[in-house]
Amino acid sequence: MSRGMNTIQAVNLALDEAMGLDENVILLGEDIADAQEGGIVGVTKGLSSKYGTARVRSTPISEQAIIGAAIGAAIVGMRPVAEIMLMNFTTVAMDMIVNHAAKLRFMSGGQTHVPITIRTMTGAGFGTGGQHADYLEAWFAHTAGLKVVAPSSPAEAYGLMLSCIFDDDPCLFIENMPSYWTPGEAPLLGQRIPLGKARVVSEGGDVTVIAYSRIVQDCAAVAGKLAKEGIGVELIDLRTIAPLDRATLIASVAKTRRAVVVHEAVRPFGVGAEIAALLNEHLFGQLRAPVQRVGAPHCPVPFSKPLETAFVPQQADIEAAVRKTLG
Amino acid sequence: MSSEPKVDRAVLVDIYRRMALIQRSDERFRAVIKAGKIVAPYYSPRGQECIPAAVSVSLGDEDYVCTIYRGIHDMLAKGVPSKLLWAEIAGKATGTCKGKGGPMHITHRESGVMVTTGIVGSSMPIANGLALAAQIRGEKRVAVAYFGDGASNIGAFHESLNMAAVWKLPVVFVCQNNGYGEHTRYDIATSAKRISDRAAGYQMPGVTVDGNDPLAVYKAARSAIIRARSGDGPTLIEAMTFRFQGHVFGDADAYMAPGEKQAAMARDPVPRFRSWLLEGGVAEAELATLEAAIDHQIDEAVAFALESPLPGVAELHRDVFAEEITA
Ligand SMILES: Cc1ncc(C[n+]2csc(CCOP(=O)(O)OP(=O)(O)O)c2C)c(N)n1
Fold first, then answer.
1. Under a CB-based contact definition with an 8 Å cutoff, are residues A163 and A195 in contact?
2. How far apart, in whole angstroms, are the C-alpha atoms of residue B327 and residue B142?
3. Whether residue A100 lies in the annotated active site
4. What is the residue-averaged pLDDT of chain A?
5. Are residues A312 and A262 in contact, defined by beta-carbon separation less than 8 angstroms?
6. CA dist list (Å): B269 to A199, B1, B15, B196, B242
7. Which atom of ligand 1 is nearest to the CA of B70?
8. Alpha-carbon distance A209 to A206, whole Å?
9. Is there an atom of ligand 1 within 6 Å of A114 CB?
10. Beta carbons of A195 and A117 less than 8 angstroms apart
11. d(CA B50, CA B72)
């Protein structure tokens, strides 16, 4: 364990390390080279100076072409990391992601595979309105063939990013913008965090809280508060949304017999719904309370500050949902 | 400035009025945001005033505009009332969109501003639809799509130009080429020497004009609008300009060549056109009166925006569908 760092630095470190390890790792994205300031928040800063602009390429504003180029390079053995500046702009490249990256392994009968990592960022809080802050992970998790990863801290971002880059399947890596500058524990250098394995953040016997991405931090705060009242929250950070670590979730809820799923994405048809259904299928009869879901209301991200604040799930919402399961 | 000033004097003064309104509104926006009275991401159009001012004098309220996040100049030139625009940017219930859209998503039907998008390249396909509706209904309306040079590298640009040309849609594509897309210089991202060269591939007229020359823009736009209105189809206009304030308010501009911005600012189109008008015989008093009226209009708008109420949280459930969501 070395010095603390924020998520920008942690992802930068992982990219740097991967590029140093394997010359097939290349980066593509808008403004990512140093002449363009290393990305809008500087995640890729320094990398084009170190590895050259052949491997760290600023692209035109052409999301479809960016992902297409990443796919093409990947099927002949490269490991491209493509940055789609904000998650909402993945919509422009949906054909490439959903019809091609996700399915080429299957459709080719295993002849080709697409080891790309799509880095993207999102999250409400900057007053950007309806087209810049959506969490769209459920769309991607719903598509077979994509791995969907959402780190909850700088150290997690580092370890998961390395795994994504060296994974042989297409991975969508979702960074949370509002927490980019929040420092955390520094990662263990060189240590990859396996994909598809959730992390038990804290153990507890009364209720399981399942979350991913930045909001895990809020859940931890709520768990700490409830601990003082003697309520034991078992907090699980999914880390990888797809594939989902079903075993860890079922084992935990079999123990606590209560569950709350928390995400920043809108609630209807979200990841929470999938997990609630999963727990029902496996633990019907053992559950002491219906599985609760905390998420944003089913509306586009609003601009006006009070609406935006009300849109993002708050610690009080998480706490209320936990209490609801306790009856 | 083009040499033959055969344009009606009233039109010239009207163009100047719109330019001054944009310039003064922009300066005030930045001051108010800097003072912390309004919190909003702001994409200044300072330096690009001339383009929509010289286009809009040939449009009526019934004509349509689709614009982008950098669009307050397009909106003001087309006649979106200052008060409502300011209130929207302040996130107030009295804004053009009840505070729910914000600066990147202004719609004001009465003045013909139908869509403001934060997704690069998306103004053009929608402008085609507006034009298509007018064509089918036999109306004489024209749709103008504003976009940046970076947007011409998105697939949607190419699809839209082709469709508009094939169907002879009454649409005018106005590219405001300010030399940069975020931090990326034009030539790094765009294969065409001029954006207007791309028109040839779609069999439509394409012209590049000095976007800081009101007469040049006026003439190009006027003939494109007349052509569109008379059923002869679309035109691509590329208006060369520069943005004085970087990409987003607060941008440090380190990606620009030293002195580049200063040189552009020395050719500031607004004072230049003002001097030209005075030399051509327009009285200083006339312009001063017009400017005082603008300042008064802005004072009123700022006060209105700051005093207006914020939207209530119930707005999250309204306007998502035609019916309010009650669940
Ligand atoms: C599809 C999409 N990709 C990326 C972005 C991020 N982005 C916002 S503005 C911008 C630059 C656009 O440049 P240009 O079209 O030249 O317009 P300008 O801002 O210079 O007026 C980019 C890349 C976006 N909003 N939408």
1. yes
2. 41
3. no
4. 97
5. no
6. 59, 10, 12, 22, 10
7. 21
8. 10
9. no
10. no
11. 13
Contact call for residues A283 and A257 (beta carbons, < 8 A): yes
Compute the average pLDDT of residues B17-38.
97
| Closest by CA position to A31, among listed A22, A41, A18, A40 | A40
At B50, list the tokens: 């001339």
Quick check: CB of B49 below 6 Å from ligand 1?
A: no
Q: What are phi and psi of B68, to 5 degrees?
A: -125, 175
A64, A91, A303: residue with CB nearest B99: A303
Q: Which of A38, A31, A34, A35 is nearest to A11 (CA)?
A: A38
Interface pTM, i.e. ipTM: 0.92
Q: Identify the pLDDT of residue B3.
A: 53
What is the structure's pLDDT at A1?
A: 40
Assign A217 to helix, strand or coil: helix
Give CA–CA dist A64/A95, Å, rounded.
8
Length of chain B: 327
Nearest CA-CA partner of B90 in B73, B79, B106, B76: B106
Kindly report the backbone phi and psi dihedral angles of residue B184, in degrees, each rounded to the nearest multiple of 5, phi listed first. Answer: -105, 125
pLDDT digits over B185-218, tens only?
999 999 999 999 999 999 999 999 999 999 999 9
Note the Cα B112 to chain centre separation in Å: 12
Interface of A with B (CB under 8 A): 30-31, 35-37, 40, 58-65, 88-89, 91-92, 126-132, 297-300, 302-307, 310-311
How far from B131 is each of A51, A109, B76, B173, CA to CA, in Å?
48, 46, 21, 12
Strands (E), chain A: 25-29, 56-58, 79-84, 117-122, 147-149, 171-176, 199-202, 207-211, 233-237, 240-242, 259-266, 292-296
